[in-house]
Each structure stands twice: as C-alpha cells, then as structure tokens.
Amino acid sequence: NAGVTQTPKFRILKIGQSMTLQCTQDMNHNYMYWYRQDPGMGLKLIYYSVGAGITDKGEVPNGYNVSRSTTEDFPLRLELAAPSQTSVYFCASSQGQAVLSEQYFGPGTRLTVT
Amino acid sequence: QKEVEQNSGPLSVPEGAIASLNCTYSDRGSQSFFWYRQYSGKSPELIMFIYSNGDKEDGRFTAQLNKASQYVSLLIRDSQPSDSATYLCAVSDNNNDMRFGAGTRLTVKP
User: Fold this and answer.
1) Tens digit of pLDDT for each residue in A22-51?
2) Which residue has the higher pLDDT, A99 or B16?
3) CB atoms within 10 A of CB B3
4) What distance in Å separates the CA atoms of residue B58 and residue B42, rounded to the nearest whole number?
5) What are residue B4's DSSP bridge partners?
6) A64-66 and A54-57: which strand pairing?
C-alpha cells in the first residue's frame, strides 16, 4: 500500500494564479481531510469529506474548494492564489470519524505564493 | 474559539530521562485526544490517543487525561535521540472536527 500520496511536492505560484493539489489514498478510507500548516503552527482543517460526493468546511475554508468524486481522490483547488496561502498542505485519511480514528497523512505539498 | 495550547519549547532532556509534554484545551465538549509526532520536514504520525480520564500506557509512552482540568499530557520514558521531534496535541469534539496545537519541539541529547 502506498497510503496517502500527494502531488506536487513543491510549487511556486504567482498571485492570482490557480492550481489543484492532488491527494489519493489506497486504503479504501471513507474519510479524507485537507490541512494547512504554517511555520511554527499547528495544522488547521480546511475541508473534509465523509465519502464520495460529500464534503464540508473546516476551520479555514476561505479561498479553497474541494470535490470528492471517488473514494480514492480528494483534490484541493486554490483559486486566485494569495500570499496568505503560502503554507504546507497535508492531506489525510481515516477509516472512521476523526473523533474515533487515527488519521494517516500524506507527505505534504509545500506551496509558496509570490 | 476552540483553542489547543502547547508550550512551544524547545524542551531539552538528556538521553534516558523522562520527557513530559503538556497540552490544555478550551472546549469542555472535547471527547478524544491525540498525540502526533512530526519529524522536521515530514508529516505527522500518530503516537497514541486517549478518550477517558486517567492514564494510558503504550511501551515507553504514557498519555494522561484530566477532563476536569482540561489537560492532557504525554510522558516519554527512557528518552532516545530518535524521539527528537515536534509533538502535536490534537483534540476532537465531534465527528470530524480536529484542532491541533502548535506543537512542542523536543530535543533528546545523547
């Protein structure tokens, strides 16, 4: 099992550009999450999904969009990138609800917006 | 605002000592509590979780939870240099909301 994979590993965007961060898991987990981690800070939940076709906002959803068309994939879309979105983005998945389950994290995408 | 607070450190302990990491949380409705370890430049990985008041032991690690004081801690016995990492406390109060603290950086000196 590859677990949770993310692409790209690194990306530099100009202000106003858009991009999609890819996330795939091969553990057949229904629950998937997107977090951002700013330097010296904890992870903040952007969006989560409890299954294909179902998504919901987390703590910091503004400036982002998600979709979940399959169990395996949970892409994160940035529209009109801003310097405040410079961060490391982690995708995670879990077998059950977050309150009851271990989350498995991908390796992260380091994004810089200049 | 639901807050999870940790001392950012760095916390430095000699090899073989006990490292004590602390975390407080603001939401009394919190139900589950997780400790994740994150090596520099890597993704978090779960150390252990605890739901009930008291202690939970797993090898060299012990999690302690006191819901009345809204306090959770992680003890690492016989600390090793390989334990040097940032330890993230995470708290969940409902089905899928998870709040992380900023983490405590631990250094174990040989």
Assistant:
1) 999 999 999 999 999 998 888 999 999 999
2) B16
3) 11
4) 23
5) B25
6) unpaired
Structure tokens at A90: 């982690």
Whether B26 and chain A come into contact, CB under 8 Å, resolves to no
Cis before residue B110, ω within 30 degrees of 0? Answer: no
Contact B100 A99 (CB under 8 A): no
Among A14, A31, A1, smallest CA distance to A85 is for A14
Closest Cα in chain A to B99:
A44
Which tokens is B88 given? Answer: 């993230």
Would you state the structure tokens that stand for residue B6, as one six-digit string? 């940790």
Quote the DSSP letter at residue A85: G
Interface list for B 41-70 with A (CB within 8 A): 42-46, 49
pLDDT tens for A45-84 read 999 999 999 999 999 999 999 999 999 999 999 989 999 9
Tell me which residue of A45, A16, A20 sits closest to A33, measured CA to CA: A45
d(CA A45, CA A58): 5
Q: For position B95, what pLDDT does the model report?
A: 67
What integer is the mean pLDDT of B40-67? 95
Instruction: Please name which of B77, B63, B61, B8 lies closest in space to residue B32, comparing C-alpha atoms.
Output: B63
β-pair partners for A15: none
Taking the C-alpha atoms of residue B91 and residue B2, their distance in angstroms, rounded to an integer, is 10
CB-based contact B32:B25 (threshold 8 Å): no
For testing contact with chain A, the best of B95, B104, B105 (most A CBs within 10 A): B95
